[in-house]
Design goal:
The chain has 340 residues and is an alpha/beta fold. It is built from eleven helices and 16 strands. A six-stranded parallel β-sheet has the order 5-4-1-6-7-8, with helices on both faces. Helix 1 packs across helix 3.
Length: 340
């Protein structure tokens, strides 16, 4: 990726703001007689616009949610904004990107005046050409409006030169609405499933991985990847993978079909009766949790998937929780969750 303009979210992307935000939310809820026993339950408030958070997670109507935000800011403006820390590796990443001539822009749902104070307090403001946030009048509450405001303020007319970096679906969806690419990060508060569903163009696990992506060196513009296997019967294979395994068809070319696996594609081709099947292959599908592996096992047993026997268990050699079955071509299939 080689983008001139890089827009960053703040919470969960540059800083770990959980302590200050969750304590400020708890303070606001206490105003309405709602006691919070575990601040971890308030983590979903990190990222979305606050009014949306109180409406979605607490069931408040808009006037009550707006009042909650007012109370939230009583705590946040004096204590919460500094109950925060810079994510490891972020200053080095920003320094590297500036050395590469990138123009860095902050696009956060946080009030702009708070964002400036936080960035200055933690020594990050000097890396940024523009710091853009929401407004007190509510005109910039939605993330797409903030991103559009940031693009206009930076004078960006060619949107193909810009990318939005964030950890939550609002960052990704906002970027899409504004017509720019996006990168989801997994070192914040969102999940891979959330970011994928929102349509992130890229998803990275670490700050170092993000740095390498944004530096724009030695980049190959690969749109997607497909691994192809020979099959005995394309119709039978298509039916098995859609109806039994549960994969959607991404592209059907008659004697060749691609299945969408979420982070890539699995393809099968019928080359003729004399083409041997691939030997010693195991096709693994990664799920988000061990519970999802268990649910998938129960589903495939009911569907009487070929070769399904032993229930999910920890692999004796590799750090995965998984189970195995087969397909009509004799290939071994595996649904798994990688263990930490």
């Amino acid at each position: 990726m080689d983008k001139k303009y890089i827009l960053f979210d703040l919470d969960g992307t540059l800083t770990d703001s959980k302590p200050g935000i969750t304590r400020a939310v708890a303070y606001a809820l206490s105003h309405f007689g709602i006691k919070t026993d575990d601040l971890e339950t308030l983590t979903p408030f990190i990222g979305p616009p606050l009014v949306d958070g109180f409406m979605t997670f607490c069931g408040f109507d808009r006037p009550k949610a707006e009042k909650a935000v007012e109370v939230y800011r009583e705590y946040f403006s004096t204590k919460g904004m500094f109950e925060n820390s810079v994510i490891d590796g972020v200053p080095q990443m920003l320094r590297t990107l500036k050395e590469k001539g990138k123009i860095l822009i902050l696009a956060t749902s946080k009030l702009e005046k708070y964002a400036i104070q936080i960035m200055e307090h933690f020594g990050l403001a000097g890396y940024f050409d523009h710091i853009c946030g929401s407004s007190l009048d509510g005109s910039l509450n939605d993330k797409e409006k903030i991103i559009e405001y940031a693009l206009n303020r930076a004078g960006i007319t060619d949107k193909s030169t810009a990318v939005m970096i964030g950890d939550r679906e609002h960052d990704i969806k906002g970027a899409s609405i504004c017509g720019i690419e996006s990168v989801g990060v997994l070192f914040g508060y969102g999940s891979a499933q959330e970011l994928e569903k929102a349509g992130a163009g890229y998803i990275v696990n670490t700050v170092n991985e993000l740095t390498n992506l944004l530096k724009g060196e030695n980049c190959i513009n690969i749109e997607s990847s497909v691994i192809f296997f020979p099959c005995r019967n394309i119709e039978e294979t298509r039916e098995y993978y859609t109806k039994t395994v549960g994969l959607p068809v991404a592209k059907d070319l008659g004697d060749c079909v691609w299945f969408d696996c979420g982070r890539g594609y699995l393809g099968f081709c019928y080359y003729g009766p004399d083409r041997p099947m691939a030997a010693g292959q195991c096709i693994s599908f990664n799920l988000a949790s061990c519970q999802e592996v268990d649910l998938k096992y129960d589903e495939l047993r009911l569907k009487k998937a070929l070769g399904i026997k032993d229930p999910p268990q920890k692999h004796p050699r590799f750090p995965v929780y998984s189970f195995f079955f087969t397909d009509p071509n004799g290939y071994t299939l595996e649904f798994q969750k990688t263990l930490d």
